[in-house]
Write a structure and sequence with these properties.
237 residues; alpha+beta; Glutamine Phosphoribosylpyrophosphate, subunit 1, domain 1; five-stranded antiparallel β-sheet; 6 helices; 12 strands; 30% strand
Length: 237
Amino acid sequence: MTFCLGMRVEGGLVALADTRVTSGNEVITARKISVFQQDGSAMFIMTSGLRSVRDKTMTYFEDNLHSQPQPFDRLFKAVNGFAEQVRRVSTEDKNALFSAGLYFDMYALIGGQMSNDKEHLLYLVYPQGNWVEIGKGTPYQIIGSPAYGKPVLDRTLKFSDPLKFALKVGVLAFDSTRISAVDVDFPLDVAVYFSNEFRILEHRYSKDDLLELSSWWANRLRQSINEVPSNAIDAIF
């Protein structure tokens, strides 16, 4: 399983992805975020699903990206270019995967801003190659394992929140997922895009880096439960 989270707030974008990849009985560490930056454009791509499908799609997309006569000037055009490669790989590999008992499974989150975009944007791409834009009403999307981190995000994250707040919430959503999903784990890769600056900051957290935060969060949750009004609970006892 995978945990990839993209958040879109007023000041920019925050992306988080675990690095655990399970293949049969093997567990390896591999990046799930790819970052592309040049003058006047910056974007990241995160993926979940079959690693073989992801690698082939990314190889085709990067080759197409470098062979473009002109760079993409709108992010949706880059998303369309990526979707074309998803469909290409599906045409080539879907039947063979199905005959082996596997589904063509790959989702992607693409975020960033190009020279002619008025603001930073975030898109979700489906295995069929169609996509949706992540809006301001629910300013996040998780691919891979969404269940455990979703409650933290639904209760706290708003589009008006600063980037630092979004990163804190994202780390807590990851921590909640890591505790409950055995296939999600450190290291944690983070990418932060600053609106209209066309630059992405990348960082990798180890378990030790976030141990204080994780321990604080667990202790505060227990403390909060003890402090919850309990008249209805007391009635039973």
